[in-house]
Specification:
The protein is α+β, with helices and mostly antiparallel strands. The chain folds into 2 domains: 76 residues; 59 residues, no CATH class. The protein is built from 3 helices and 6 strands; from the N terminus they run ααββββαββ.
Length: 152
């Protein structure tokens, strides 16, 4: 039960992070759309066109961010919080002699009770090193060496 509680809590924190990013991008897109609609043709036509072009670029950038958030959300939805195993994979919690990791999406530092975890994607450099490892394996990353102590 404790394992599901930790995994569930970390998963919810990742989901909240993603929801927050989604709201921010959606607000940005709404503001850009509002600016595009409210922009009126001024006597300085070139200045008007430049302003519209800049807003279009901002809208495209926000659209790319939205697509990335959706892709990350799809990855997070594949995490099974009730699954445990001894080999590191998507959804694993990895305790090492240096730091603790939650293999899901890249969020940064998150906590559960007194423990801190780095929520990372399996595609990050450290994530790629950890995936498929098991308890007792030694991992070398950036001139540091650490041992996997526990995988859940």
């Amino acid at each position: 039960m404790e394992t599901t509680s930790i995994k569930g809590n970390l998963y919810k924190q990742c989901l909240a992070f993603l929801d927050d990013r989604l709201r921010t991008v959606q607000n940005t897109m709404s503001e850009i759309q509002e600016s595009l609609l409210s922009e009126t043709k001024s006597s300085a036509g070139d200045k008007h066109e430049t302003g519209r072009a800049m807003l279009q670029l901002e809208r495209e950038k926000a659209g790319n961010q939205l697509a990335e958030i959706q892709k990350t959300g799809e990855l997070l939805s594949k995490v099974n919080v009730s699954k445990t195993g001894t080999i590191v994979g998507l959804g694993s919690i990895v305790y090492t002699s240096k730091s603790n990791y939650y293999i899901a999406i890249s969020v940064g530092l998150i906590t559960h009770e007194k423990d801190s975890f780095y929520a990372i994607s399996a595609n990050t450099p450290i994530g790629r090193l950890l995936v498929s490892k098991t308890v007792g394996d030694v991992v070398r990353f950036r001139d540091q060496e650490f041992v996997i102590k526990k995988v859940i």
